[in-house]
Amino acid sequence: MEGIKIESGMSREVDEIKSRIDIVDLVGEYVKLNPAGANHKGLCPFHNEKTSSFMVNQSKQIWRCFGCGEGGDLFSFFMKVEGIEFGEALKLLAKRTGVVLPDYQPSDIKKDSQNDIMLKILDLTARYWHKILLDSTQAKAAKDYLIDRKITEESIIDFKIGYSIDQWDNLINFLKKKNFSDRELFSAGLTVKRNGASGFYDRFRGRIMFPISDIHGRIVGFGGRTLNKEEQAKYINSPQSETYNKSAVLFGLNLAKNYIKKNNLCILVEGYMDVIPSHQAGIKNVASISGTALTQEQIVLIKRFTTNLALALDMDLAGQNAAERSADLALQNEMNVSVITLPYGKDPGECATNNPQDWKRAIEEAKPIMQYFLDRAISDNDLSLPENKKNVAKYYLAKIIGLPNKIDQEFWLKKLSDKISVSEKVLWESFPKGKIKQNNRVINTVNSNLIVKRENKKEKNYLILQRIFSILFIFPNFAQKLIDELPTDMFQGELDILYKKFIMYYTKNIDSFNSASDQGTTFDLFDSLNGLLDDQGPDYEFKVFLEESFLLSQNESSRLSDKEIREELANFINILKADYINSKITALKAQLEEAEQKSDRQKLESIYSELNEYIRRRALLN
């Protein structure tokens, strides 16, 4: 990720925010972290991986993924995981920590931007409708409905439930008094253009209003339930807008996210009135897709907190189809999916309201989705008929193909084989060619199991030099040995610049390096080097290199003895020397062939002499 440009005058606020947020706590809201030496480790939220390569260091307040190469500080993480710019991240983290930003706004933070105006309008509207529900006599029917559905006053406050008065221009008049324009109200999705006439009218009228919030609790849209039994549309939602993307939000997730993380499970229901009774029943790790099938964007949101998903959608035909589409997509994203079978009532809301213990038991007894698919297919077919066996196999094999893990494929294939009495061999042969997923990620080691060669990532020598620096961060007194053994011309390009910068720093601070081996002295090489660098410009790559090296040092080198360190260092130096010598020999052989073609005797003798020297040096390494 590129360096973050901080406007003049804002660095103090940025530093203050960093001092009030522990990066482990922030990252831990999105990634399940486990202690790993001096680091914390988890699965990277920015690319699919099965083995943890994502590290966070608390002492330095930095993070980096050794799989995809992303890294930085808490601001860079927050920006990337939320998909927002620096200005928005600054405002959100300032609000979270209580840091007061200056009255002026830097260029990155547009004052009263279109998005800001929409959010202000939506927040004010929610508070207006909420007050109407609590205080106005015109909201009596809405209150009676909520009481009849056993929605408590606490829930009404927690979810900011409101009521829109059944008038054509009630909200318009209220918001215009607050100096918002017709165009702004329309853009916020709160009004509708009149047909065949000028002007606008309120979109929501005579409805119980459910504010829809993003993950940070900012209201981005509304869902409204009619109280009129004759009304054709029972629920209407805000239209797609700059703030509201129905495919990228989940109702109640802002309140449920910490409970989802704590329980390592997200329960997905269909509507607002399923989420709220569940919260009242003490089951708060619940969110709603609000009547649609699950989307890729929503899965990304959920996977910030858990990879376990339990579907509790209505079990009518539409609900079953939505559950199937949602499950297929979640499985493709390597989530563990189960289905909750409701023992009471036609939906989770009724079950949670009328018998909370049954609802809790149903959650505990949720069935793995692949088992649910198989049981449903078998129950709908008479397996004494070969044609029905083929139908079941065709349906279920399509589900198995969608599984990204071969072990899961084999497990459920065996289940299918047992259920329909068809051999696994025959079923395997039924797979469409080229559709069987396999995990073909290969990791190669280079003379040490601590050095990983990653396809399309850093070259081997870069990784080895990182490992060497990870040793120096723990044992800086080894720097002299490194410089004595590795001349500056051993590297090319980026590595050449990095290595020369380090040698220059060492030369200027040799006393600090020497004192590092004295008892009772402390010398933080990482802080010393890192403090000299800018977050951007030509220093950015060096900064990334140092951060990755430091995280490696905390993960591995700190557990090695002095003898093991010396052996590791010697091993890595020999690898670099061997690569350097081999590259020289290859280049000299090419020059030798060219000189022979030109019959240049003098040049031939010079090349032979140099080539023999490098061959001799290579022999000494063995």
What does the model show?
- With about 625 residues, this protein is of the alpha+beta class.
- It has five domains: about 10-95, Zinc finger, CHC2-typedomain (DNA Primase, Chain A, Alpha-Beta Complex), CATH 3.90.580; about 115-245, DNA primase, catalytic core, N-terminal domain (DNA primase DNAg catalytic core, N-terminal domain); about 250-355, Dna Topoisomerase Vi A Subunit, Chain: A, domain 2; about 375-430, Pheromone ER-1; about 445-615.
- The protein is about 50% helix and about 10% strand.
- α16 packs antiparallel against α17.
- The two termini are about 40 Å apart.
Structural descriptors:
DNA primase DNAg catalytic core, N-terminal domain; Dna Topoisomerase Vi A Subunit, Chain: A, domain 2; 622 residues; alpha+beta; 51% helix; 5-stranded antiparallel sheet; DNA Primase, Chain A
Task: Describe how the helices and strands are arranged.
Layout: H1 11-20, H2 23-28, E1 34-36, E2 39-42, E3 54-57, E4 62-65, E5 71-72, H3 74-82, H4 86-97, H5 114-135, H6 140-148, H7 153-158, E6 162-164, H8 170-176, H9 182-187, E7 191-193, E8 200-202, E9 207-213, E10 219-226, E11 235-237, H10 253-263, E12 266-269, H11 272-280, E13 286-288, H12 296-302, E14 308-311, H13 317-332, E15 336-339, H14 348-354, H15 356-364, E16 367-368, H16 369-379, H17 386-401, H18 406-420, H19 424-430, E17 444-445, E18 452-453, H20 460-474, H21 479-485, H22 493-508, H23 510-515, H24 525-530, H25 540-555, H26 562-598, H27 601-621
Parallel strand pairs: 12-13, 12-14, 14-15
Antiparallel strand pairs: 1-2, 2-3, 3-4, 4-5, 6-9, 7-8, 9-10, 10-11, 15-16, 17-18
Helix pairs in contact: 1-4, 3-4, 11-14, 14-15, 16-17, 16-18, 17-18, 20-25, 20-26, 26-27
